[in-house]
Amino acid sequence: MLWLSSSSQLRLSASKFFGMAEDAPQGTPEVVGKFKTGDIVITKNALECISCDEAFAAFALHIAADWGEQTEDGGEANDLAQKEGRNLRSVCLTEAGVTFHIITKADRSCTTIQLPEDN
């Protein structure tokens, strides 16, 4: 499922993001993370600059609590935020050198892949 919202973001279901059909055969592996992600959203700007493969790889690391190109303090802050139910932020870098963020809301209702200027 992919749709354009009024906030210029694309939303997609986790199963479609990971290329899994809703009626996938039993035994199809699922991506399981250390926390819930809610809806997965990518901004239009990010979609233009980040390949699907890079977005998928970074998202998989994010839900495994690998916070990307963070300082040590940033990683520790995310570890604490995960335990306390606050926003989680990964800082990622494409092969072309584009920095992007993956942010999961504190209530775990939504995870957004965005460029820093998309705030």
Outline of this structure?
This protein is of the alpha+beta class and 119 residues long. The chain has helices spanning 14-17, 44-49, 52-63, 72-84; strands spanning 2-4, 9-12, 39-43, 88-93, 99-104, 110-114.
CA radius of gyration is: 14 Å
- How many strands, which pairing sense, and closed or not: the largest β-sheet? 6 strands, mixed
How many angstroms does the end-to-end distance come to?
24 Å
What are the secondary-structure elements, in order, as H or E?
A: EEHEHHHEEE
Helix content: 25-40%
- Structural class computed from helices and strand pairing: alpha+beta
Tally of individual helices: 4
In round numbers, the mean pLDDT is: 77
Number of beta-strand segments: 6
What strand order characterises the main sheet?
1-2-3-6-5-4
Low-confidence stretches: 1-25
In percent terms, what proportion of residues is strand?
15-25%
Number of domains: 1
Shape: globular
Can you describe this structure?
- With 119 residues, this protein is of the alpha+beta class.
- The protein has one domain.
- It is 29% helix and 24% strand.
- It has helices spanning 14-17, 44-49, 52-63, 72-84; strands at residues 2-4, 9-12, 39-43, 88-93, 99-104, 110-114.
- Strands 1-2-3-6-5-4 form a six-stranded mixed beta sheet.
- The chain is globular and about 35 Å long.
- The two termini are 24 Å apart.
What is the fold's blueprint, element by element?
Layout lengths: L1 E3 L4 E4 L1 H4 L21 E5 H6 L2 H12 L8 H13 L3 E6 L5 E6 L5 E5 L5
Parallel strand pairs: 3-6
Antiparallel strand pairs: 1-2, 2-3, 4-5, 5-6
